[in-house]
Amino acid sequence: MSLLIGALIFDALGVYPCPMCIVQRWCFAFAGLFALGSSISKNKHLNIFMMVGLYAFLIFGILFSSRQIFVQNLPIDELMFIGGCGMPFSTMVEYQGLINALKMSYQGGPSCAEDGWRFIFNFAEWALIAFLGMVFLKTIGAFSQR
Protein backbone atom coordinates (compact mmCIF):
# COMPACT_ATOMS: atom_id res chain seq x y z
CA MET A 1 0.00 0.00 0.00
CA SER A 2 2.80 2.41 0.87
CA LEU A 3 4.43 1.69 -2.50
CA LEU A 4 1.23 2.73 -4.25
CA ILE A 5 0.98 5.89 -2.14
CA GLY A 6 4.64 6.66 -2.83
CA ALA A 7 4.17 6.18 -6.56
CA LEU A 8 1.13 8.47 -6.54
CA ILE A 9 2.99 11.13 -4.57
CA PHE A 10 5.94 11.03 -6.96
CA ASP A 11 3.64 11.25 -9.97
CA ALA A 12 1.46 13.97 -8.46
CA LEU A 13 4.45 16.11 -7.53
CA GLY A 14 6.24 15.44 -10.81
CA VAL A 15 9.28 14.04 -9.02
CA TYR A 16 10.78 11.20 -11.00
CA PRO A 17 12.86 8.73 -9.01
CA CYS A 18 16.43 7.89 -9.94
CA PRO A 19 17.38 4.29 -10.78
CA MET A 20 18.54 3.64 -7.21
CA CYS A 21 15.14 4.70 -5.88
CA ILE A 22 13.39 2.47 -8.39
CA VAL A 23 15.48 -0.54 -7.33
CA GLN A 24 14.65 0.20 -3.70
CA ARG A 25 10.95 0.32 -4.57
CA TRP A 26 11.22 -3.07 -6.25
CA CYS A 27 13.03 -4.43 -3.19
CA PHE A 28 10.15 -3.24 -1.00
CA ALA A 29 7.62 -4.78 -3.38
CA PHE A 30 9.32 -8.17 -3.62
CA ALA A 31 10.09 -8.26 0.11
CA GLY A 32 6.40 -7.62 0.73
CA LEU A 33 5.39 -10.41 -1.64
CA PHE A 34 7.79 -12.86 -0.01
CA ALA A 35 6.59 -11.81 3.47
CA LEU A 36 2.99 -12.34 2.39
CA GLY A 37 3.89 -15.71 0.90
CA SER A 38 5.68 -16.82 4.05
CA SER A 39 2.75 -15.80 6.23
CA ILE A 40 0.24 -17.66 4.03
CA SER A 41 2.29 -20.78 3.34
CA LYS A 42 1.88 -23.84 5.52
CA ASN A 43 4.51 -25.85 3.61
CA LYS A 44 7.80 -25.90 5.53
CA HIS A 45 10.04 -26.03 2.44
CA LEU A 46 8.13 -23.28 0.64
CA ASN A 47 8.22 -21.19 3.81
CA ILE A 48 12.02 -21.54 3.97
CA PHE A 49 12.25 -20.45 0.33
CA MET A 50 10.01 -17.46 1.06
CA MET A 51 12.13 -16.45 4.06
CA VAL A 52 15.36 -16.69 2.05
CA GLY A 53 13.77 -14.56 -0.69
CA LEU A 54 12.53 -12.06 1.87
CA TYR A 55 15.94 -11.67 3.49
CA ALA A 56 17.63 -11.49 0.06
CA PHE A 57 15.47 -8.55 -1.02
CA LEU A 58 15.83 -6.84 2.35
CA ILE A 59 19.62 -7.11 2.21
CA PHE A 60 19.60 -5.99 -1.42
CA GLY A 61 17.51 -2.97 -0.36
CA ILE A 62 19.91 -2.22 2.49
CA LEU A 63 22.83 -2.26 0.05
CA PHE A 64 21.15 0.11 -2.41
CA SER A 65 19.81 2.52 0.20
CA SER A 66 23.12 2.74 2.05
CA ARG A 67 24.95 3.27 -1.26
CA GLN A 68 22.54 6.07 -2.14
CA ILE A 69 23.15 7.72 1.23
CA PHE A 70 26.89 7.46 0.54
CA VAL A 71 26.47 9.00 -2.93
CA GLN A 72 24.32 11.80 -1.52
CA ASN A 73 27.10 12.74 0.89
CA LEU A 74 29.90 12.81 -1.69
CA PRO A 75 31.51 16.15 -2.50
CA ILE A 76 30.47 17.57 -5.87
CA ASP A 77 33.92 17.12 -7.43
CA GLU A 78 33.88 13.38 -6.60
CA LEU A 79 30.24 13.00 -7.62
CA MET A 80 30.98 14.06 -11.18
CA PHE A 81 33.30 11.06 -11.68
CA ILE A 82 30.62 8.44 -11.08
CA GLY A 83 28.13 8.06 -13.86
CA GLY A 84 26.11 4.91 -13.44
CA CYS A 85 22.71 6.57 -13.39
CA GLY A 86 22.84 8.39 -16.69
CA MET A 87 19.49 7.21 -18.04
CA PRO A 88 16.16 5.92 -16.74
CA PHE A 89 16.21 2.45 -15.21
CA SER A 90 13.84 0.98 -17.80
CA THR A 91 16.12 2.19 -20.60
CA MET A 92 19.15 0.70 -18.86
CA VAL A 93 17.35 -2.65 -18.56
CA GLU A 94 16.28 -2.51 -22.20
CA TYR A 95 19.74 -1.79 -23.59
CA GLN A 96 22.08 -3.28 -20.98
CA GLY A 97 20.09 -6.16 -19.47
CA LEU A 98 18.91 -6.46 -15.88
CA ILE A 99 22.24 -7.41 -14.29
CA ASN A 100 24.20 -4.60 -15.96
CA ALA A 101 21.40 -2.15 -15.21
CA LEU A 102 21.58 -3.10 -11.52
CA LYS A 103 25.36 -2.68 -11.56
CA MET A 104 25.06 0.74 -13.21
CA SER A 105 22.33 1.77 -10.78
CA TYR A 106 24.44 0.71 -7.81
CA GLN A 107 27.28 2.98 -8.99
CA GLY A 108 24.97 5.94 -8.65
CA GLY A 109 25.40 9.33 -10.20
CA PRO A 110 24.44 12.97 -9.92
CA SER A 111 20.70 12.24 -10.28
CA CYS A 112 20.92 9.79 -7.35
CA ALA A 113 22.52 12.42 -5.14
CA GLU A 114 19.57 14.82 -5.26
CA ASP A 115 17.37 15.26 -2.22
CA GLY A 116 14.01 15.21 -3.95
CA TRP A 117 11.93 15.54 -0.78
CA ARG A 118 12.61 15.41 2.91
CA PHE A 119 10.46 14.62 5.92
CA ILE A 120 13.05 14.55 8.72
CA PHE A 121 15.05 12.13 6.53
CA ASN A 122 15.16 11.72 2.75
CA PHE A 123 13.85 8.71 0.81
CA ALA A 124 17.10 6.72 0.98
CA GLU A 125 17.44 7.25 4.72
CA TRP A 126 13.81 6.25 5.35
CA ALA A 127 14.29 3.22 3.11
CA LEU A 128 17.39 2.14 5.05
CA ILE A 129 15.52 2.53 8.35
CA ALA A 130 12.60 0.51 6.98
CA PHE A 131 14.78 -2.28 5.56
CA LEU A 132 16.78 -2.57 8.78
CA GLY A 133 13.59 -2.47 10.83
CA MET A 134 12.04 -5.25 8.77
CA VAL A 135 15.16 -7.41 9.12
CA PHE A 136 15.16 -6.80 12.87
CA LEU A 137 11.45 -7.52 13.33
CA LYS A 138 11.47 -10.60 11.10
CA THR A 139 14.53 -11.99 12.88
CA ILE A 140 12.98 -11.38 16.31
CA GLY A 141 9.77 -13.02 15.09
CA ALA A 142 11.66 -16.04 13.76
CA PHE A 143 13.51 -16.55 17.05
CA SER A 144 10.36 -16.13 19.14
CA GLN A 145 8.59 -18.89 17.16
CA ARG A 146 11.26 -21.45 18.03
Q: Write out the strand line-up for the largest beta sheet, numbering strands in chain order.
A: 1-2
Distance between the termini: 30 Å
User: What is the arithmetic mean of pLDDT?
Assistant: 82
Shape: globular
> Describe the biggest sheet?
2 strands, antiparallel
Radius of gyration: 16 Å
Helix percent reads over 70%
Number of discrete domains: 1
Précis, in short:
The protein has seven helices and two strands, in the order H-H-H-H-H-H-E-E-H.
Describe this structure in words.
This protein is mainly alpha-helical. It has one domain (2-145). It is built from seven helices and two strands. It has a two-stranded antiparallel ribbon. A hairpin with a 1-residue loop joins β1 (118-119) and β2. It is globular and about 50 Å long.
